[in-house]
Each structure stands twice: as C-alpha cells, then as structure tokens.
Amino acid sequence: MNSWLLIGPVLLLLVVLLFVVYAIFFERKVIGWAQNRIGPNRVGYWGLLQTVADVLKLLFKEDVIPNKSDELLFRIAPIIAFVPSFAVLAVIPFSDSIRFSDFAIGLLYYMALSSITIIGILIGGWSSNNKYSLMGGMRSAAQMISYEIPLVMSVVGIVLSVGSLNLTEIVEAQKDVWFIVPQFVGFVVFLIAAISELNRCPFDLPEAESELVAGYHVEYSGFRFAFFMLTEYVYMFAMAALTTVLYLGGWNAPFGLTFIPPIIWFVLKFLLIVFFLFWLRATMPRLRADQLMQFSWKVLLPIALLNILLTCVLKEVPVIGAYF
Amino acid sequence: MLGLVKGLGVTLKNMTKPKVTYRYPDEPLLMPNRFRGIQHFDPEKCIVCNQCARICPTDCITLSGKKQPEKKGKVIDTYTINFETCILCDLCTEVCPTGAITMTNNYELAVYSRDELFKDLEWLNQNNTHIREEQSGNVAKRHGGKQ
Amino acid sequence: MLRTEEMLLNVGPQHPSTHGVLRLKLKIDGEIIVDAEPVIGYLHRGTEKLAEDLNYTQIIPYTDRMDYISAMTNNYAIVHAAERLMQLEIPERAEYLRVIAMELNRVASHLVWVGTYLLDLGALTPFLYCFRDREEILDLFNELCGARMTFNYMRVGGVKWDAPSGWIEKVAGFVERMKKEVKEYHNLITGNEIFIQRTKGIGIVSKSLAIEYALSGANLRVTGINWDLRKNKPYSIYDRFEFDVPVGKTGDLYDKYLCRMREIEESLRIVEQAIARFPESGPILAKVPKVLRVPEGEVYVGIESPRGELGCHIVSKGKDKPWRLKFRRPSFYNLQIIPHLLKGENISNLVAILGGIDIILGEVDC
C-alpha cells in the first residue's frame, strides 16, 4: 500500500504527460482534418513524434526573462498555475479500483483547487510587464471567476440527488441512469462553463491571438511557456474526466455491456469529450469579453439556479423522483 | 443554437472529405505551361538589341555585347539577371524579337547567399528544363501565330 | 479612490490582425478605446512617383503590387485610363477575358476577406475553406497568365494572353462548384450565433457619415446607398450583364459580411453570363503602336475594385511615360473612418471593426 502511494502519482503523471503530448497532436490532426488538411505528418511515423519534437525544442530554448519584469513572480507564476492542475487529479476515480484519494468532499476539493490556477495566470500576466499580457491576465481572471459560479451551481443538482460530494458515490449512483438524462440542463450549463474554465474555443479570450497576440503568456518562452501549455492540457484532462464522472456515468457500462472492462469505458467516454472540445475549436469563432460576462451572469447562472430548483421539485414527485 | 449545430455539421462532414494539400517538397509542383519562372537564355539567338534591359521595370538585366569580325552586328558577351530585384513580370520575354530569352516553369530561387542570386549567362543557359512552349509578344507576332 | 489613467497601446505594425503593417496608436481607458490614430506608410514604395519614370507597359507590374489580393482590377485601372486617353477600341474577346478575370478576382478577394475576417474573430476553419476555394481561382489565373497573384495580365489595348484551350470550361466548372461552396459558407458562418453576436449592431456607419468620409465599395453599400460603378458609371462591357448590387440595411458589420457574400454570388453570375457569350475567336489586342505614346491630356477613370472605387488619374504630356500618375486607392480612403468608428468601442471590437473595412496595406501605402 505504501509503495503505491509513491508510485501511483508518478504513474499518473506519466499518463497525464502522455495524454498531453498526444492530445496536442490529436487536436492538430482533428483540426487539420476538419480543414481538409493532413495535419502534422513529418516527424515520426504519421507525425506521431511531432509534439515530442515541439516539447524538446521548448526545453532547449533560451530562458528569457524580460528586463523590466518582476522576476520572482515571473518565475513562480507557471508553477502556481501548474501545481493545482495536477493536484485536482487526485480525487478523480478512473474506475472502481483505480483511484487515488476517496474523500467525502471530492467535488468541492476539485472546484476549490482549480481556482488557484487563476492566481498563477494573473501573476504571469502582471509580472510580464506587458500591456497585452496584463489585459490577457485580467480577462482570464474575470472569465474564470465568473464561470466558476455556474460551474459549481450546475453540479449542485447532482449533489442534491446523490446526497454526497464524493465522486465515487456519484458514479455509483449512475448505475441505472446516467445523470446526463435527468440533469440535462445541468449538463449543458456544466459543459459550457467547463469549456470556459478551460479557456478553450469559443471562450479562449485570454489568449485571443487576433486581439491580444497571445494573452497572458506573451512574454513567456521555453520551458515556462511549456508549463502554461501543460497546465491548460492537464486541466483538459481533468475536466474531461470530471465530466465523465459526473454526467456520463464514469466507468459504468451502458446497455449492460459489462464484458468490456470499466477503465475502457471510462477512457472512451473521456475521449469523446476531448474530441468534442477539438471539434468545437475547429468550428467556432470567439465570443467577446463583455458578452462572455453577460452570458455567464445573465444566462448560465439563472439556468443553473433553475436547475437546482427543478431538481428539488422533481425529487418529490413520485415515479420520476426515483431518477433524481 | 441551430446555427452552431449546423456549423459543427459542416466541419464534421469535411473531416472525411479528401485532403487538398500538396506534398510539395516531396513531390515537385508542376506549374502550367505559361508559368513565369526563372528565365532561360539562349545566347545563339540573341542579337544584343538591348530591348529586354530597357523594358525591365526594375532594371535587373545587365548585358553587354562584343563585335564579331565576320558577322554583322554584335554577339552577346555577358548577360546577368539580378534575381534580388527581378519580379518575373515576363516583359523581357515579351519584347525579345528572337526568343533568346524565354520563361521556364522552374521557380526554386532560394539560396543561402544573396550573391548567388546574380545569375549569369551560363547559368541562365543551363536553366533549360520546362521551357515555356507557347510564345507571346514579338516572337509570336513574327511567327504569325495567334497572339 | 484609486488613481486610474489612460494607457497608450500600440497595435502593430507587427500584430496578427492588422492585416499587414498598419499601426494603431490606441488610447485606452480599461478596455474602452478613447482615441485611435492609424499610422501608415510602412509599406510605402512610391509607386506613383516611380511611374513617372516608367512607360505604360512597365507600370502594369507595379500596379500588381498595390492591391495584391485583386491585382486584375489594378491592372485594369491603369490600362483603362491609358486607353481612355488614347481612345482605343478594345477587341470584344479581350473585353470578355478582362471581365471574367476581374470578376473571378473579385470572388477571390472577397474569399480572402471572409476567411481572414473569421480568423480575426477567432474561427480557424472558414479561413482554410476560403483559401481552398481561392486556390482554385489562383490556379485558373496561373494557367491564364502564368502567375498566381501578380498577374501582369492586361495590356494597353487588350490582354496579354488568350484563354488557353479548355480554360473557359474550367471556369464554368469552378463557378458551378463555387455556388455550392457559398451555401456551405452560409451553413458554417452566417447562422452562427456567436458570429452574429460579434458583428450585429457593431461598427454602424450612417449614410451621411459614409459620404462624408468618401467611403466606397461594400463599406458604402452597407449603409443603404446603391452605388456601384459597374452599374452607375459602366465601364468595359458591364452594361451588357445582368446583376444586382447588394445593398445593406443597417450598415453594421454583419451587413458588410452579407453584402460581400452576395457580391460573390453576383460576380459568379456575371462570370456565368460572360462565359455564355464568350466570342468564339477574334483578336485580343487592339492595334497599338510599338511605342505607346499617350496623347496630351488628363483623364480620371474610376472602376469598382473589390474594395471600392479604384481611381486612376493620368496627366500626360504626350510622352511614352505619364507626367503624373495618381491612384485613388479605396483602402486608403476607407481606412480614414477608423478613428471615428473606434472611439468609445470596446477593445475586443477593434479587430472586428478594423477587419470589416477590408484594407490591404499594399494599397493603403501604395
């Protein structure tokens, strides 16, 4: 048991890194296909080593710290951003046997920890001492804070039906019906808020290339930049896993197809969400900053609150109440 | 929401469509016959009339001729095109009365040093692949071809 | 109270969405633009001055490089002005070739605009689709005149090359395909709620303002003014074709997009008609002397380039070179409204408004 405590996280880190490397590769491929292109295909067979080469290049790059930047903050910003992104993975149950921590307030832990990243981004944007990165950081902070609220509110419906914040119990409650069915409204709100939390298209304002050049990481290069990039994709990993756990029944097999191992089911559902994110990026233009805020406070939050109310009411209705 | 879904449909449909990219550096791209690439120069045909140098909008052609004892007129001695400034506008081949200078379909002009961009008579003469077949301008007129 | 102050933000000249080397000096208060000042001239090559030292044929390749997205119309502006002064009669076949080339170029130019505009707004894919289809037009031009962007196709008195065999059929095939593609664009872009959110009601230009700032092209037409030089002051053989001039209602960015999309369709309509009536044979170059001497005089011609009224003013002293040449470049005039439009806008509308004007920096700086 004790040795697993040490090896487990290292293994997970490797899995996550592998995921990040191939998520970036796969993203480029999917977007390429959607655009009648081939995507990366020069490095390695079928381009499989493209991201590896990119990462290596970033590692070998000169470590540039702008002259007028706040050096200490500039250095620690990527770390502040990255650490919570990996830490949140601790509570996610990948299957009924593969999990790291199984404590009662798993969901709350995830939500609370993931907001720390905002501080890292804000610090990064501020310490670069660049106008574009400052605006990118500000936007990012505003966006992530305002979308955190609908994100949390949308899962309250699930918490109400399960009566627990423990993610394992939430999965087990979905043995018969996945929460995507009774909690469909909550699912939509959660998905939109999650995409926004991930700073992904169509909510990728903080790095709006056409306006802010690259957003909060304009001045970052080399390994520090790689860390911000890593943070983003680790969050994608975490968020896709969380969505699977909360709404798609985690490792539960649909239609009684239980002969396929639960971890495979988990991975399949997980990949479906990841693909959806890429697909979305290939299609959507970007929202505007103020519209983004309005959308969060005026549309998503009321819907999320309504969803809570609806769940409470339907829970008391006979027959249907069983599903809530 | 409908518009977003429609858009997603379009991108999904395109994922399975054939790719439109070229395998360019692996397979050379063949240009159509009229393509204005690097010039080919044929010293045999040149009558040193200097028209190409005069029409050139960027003054990138320099040439000199020398007297030939047994023949009338001059023969070409040096002929240089500076591809730093050449805009491949095709006017030199248009005015050439004998077709001594013609366009080819070759377009690879990247070099490591700017000096290499000065292409001399010999280089231009060696550049004899993919020479444009169709003539335009003065040569076409002389041969009575359809202009 | 916290002390707040305005921030000076330099956008460009190396910024991903200033479409080249435009520089904007913005004064911003938070994210609100207080003042904007465009700085131009980074791509100035002195085409007009150079032209005084070049004969008319030599000027044509220089005009290719002004509005490099639609070089055919630039070619036409200069040769048309010279022809007007010389009072040349242009052969029928040459006129048709010119119209087909110009209208295809208009389609290509608008495709570039739609693609880059959506890229400015953050959508990656329409850009690639537009360039995929534009590539077909460029390939057609490549076959016609041997270059993909700097065509140098038109000559005083006609065109340089006749259509190669089978070219007209290829154009007809392209027009058919393009019509279907336009529908796909509408599916992908027009109905997209985010796109509508980003463009509806933004960057509104009123009729009087558009006239005050001498806007032309789609920028003028979105305000509701029906003014297209192809219809109002017909040149070449445009009076023989049937086409509509798309006019906007509100003058906002969404209207601009719709206008340009409809202009693509109308251009395809013109090309279709031109192909149907394309003369079987005939000369493609009028009888012009070997050394072009344009008679003494002055002429101004305005033609409808994809961006607006492209004017060419020649003052000739009877030599083979113009004494003075002036281009009225639509991008340059359209750009002037930028400070007015940007004042008080959110900074995230900046690229949407700037992109909507459709400037080509090669043309602005000339």
UniProtKB/TrEMBL annotation, chain A:
Belongs to the complex I subunit 1 family. Keywords: Cell membrane, Membrane, NAD, Oxidoreductase, Quinone, Translocase, Transmembrane, Transmembrane helix, Ubiquinone. It is a multi-pass membrane protein. GO terms for cellular component: plasma membrane. It comes from the Bacteria. It catalyses: a quinone + NADH + 5 H(+)(in) = a quinol + NAD(+) + 4 H(+)(out). The chain crosses the membrane at residues 72-95, 107-126, 147-165, 177-195, 233-253, 259-280, 300-323. It is an enzyme of class 7 (translocase). PANTHER family: NADH DEHYDROGENASE SUBUNIT 1, NADH-UBIQUINONE OXIDOREDUCTASE CHAIN 1. GO terms for molecular function: NADH dehydrogenase activity; oxidoreductase activity, acting on NAD(P)H, quinone or similar compound as acceptor; quinone binding. This is NADH-quinone oxidoreductase subunit H. NDH-1 is composed of 14 different subunits. Subunits NuoA, H, J, K, L, M, N constitute the membrane sector of the complex. The keyword tRNA processing does not apply. The keyword Oxidoreductase applies. It is found in: Cell membrane; Membrane. NDH-1 shuttles electrons from NADH, via FMN and iron-sulfur (Fe-S) centers, to quinones in the respiratory chain. The immediate electron acceptor for the enzyme in this species is believed to be ubiquinone. Couples the redox reaction to proton translocation (for every two electrons transferred, four hydrogen ions are translocated across the cytoplasmic membrane), and thus conserves the redox energy in a proton gradient. This subunit may bind ubiquinone. Its EC number is 7.1.1.-. GO terms for biological process: aerobic respiration. It comes from Thermoactinomyces mirandus.
From TrEMBL, chain B:
This is NADH-quinone oxidoreductase subunit I. It is an enzyme of class 7 (translocase). NDH-1 shuttles electrons from NADH, via FMN and iron-sulfur (Fe-S) centers, to quinones in the respiratory chain. The immediate electron acceptor for the enzyme in this species is believed to be ubiquinone. Couples the redox reaction to proton translocation (for every two electrons transferred, four hydrogen ions are translocated across the cytoplasmic membrane), and thus conserves the redox energy in a proton gradient. Belongs to the complex I 23 kDa subunit family. Its EC number is 7.1.1.-. The keyword Iron-sulfur applies. PROSITE patterns: 4FE4S_FER_1, 4FE4S_FER_2. Gene3D superfamilies: 3.30.70.3270. [4Fe-4S] cluster 2 binds at residues 56, 86, 89, 92. It is found in: Cell membrane. One of its GO terms (cellular component) is plasma membrane. The keyword Metal-binding applies. Keywords: 4Fe-4S, Cell membrane, Iron, Iron-sulfur, Membrane, Metal-binding, NAD, Oxidoreductase, Quinone, Translocase, Ubiquinone. GO terms for molecular function: 4 iron, 4 sulfur cluster binding; iron ion binding; NADH dehydrogenase (quinone) (non-electrogenic) activity; quinone binding. The gene is nuoI. It catalyses: a quinone + NADH + 5 H(+)(in) = a quinol + NAD(+) + 4 H(+)(out). InterPro entries: 4Fe4S_Fe-S-bd, 4Fe4S_Fe_S_CS, NADH_quinone_OxRdtase_chainI.
TrEMBL record, chain C:
It is found in: Cell membrane. The keyword Translocase applies. Gene3D superfamilies: Cytochrome-c3 Hydrogenase, chain B (1.10.645.10). Its EC number is 7.1.1.-. GO terms for molecular function: NAD binding; NADH dehydrogenase (quinone) (non-electrogenic) activity; quinone binding. It catalyses: a quinone + NADH + 5 H(+)(in) = a quinol + NAD(+) + 4 H(+)(out). Residues 120-291 form the NADH-quinone oxidoreductase subunit D domain. It is a peripheral membrane protein. It comes from the Bacteria. The keyword Translocase applies. NDH-1 is composed of 14 different subunits. Subunits NuoB, C, D, E, F, and G constitute the peripheral sector of the complex. Belongs to the complex I 49 kDa subunit family. NDH-1 shuttles electrons from NADH, via FMN and iron-sulfur (Fe-S) centers, to quinones in the respiratory chain. The immediate electron acceptor for the enzyme in this species is believed to be a menaquinone. Couples the redox reaction to proton translocation (for every two electrons transferred, four hydrogen ions are translocated across the cytoplasmic membrane), and thus conserves the redox energy in a proton gradient. HAMAP family: NDH1_NuoD. NCBIfam families: PRK06075.1, PRK12322.1. This is NADH-quinone oxidoreductase subunit D.
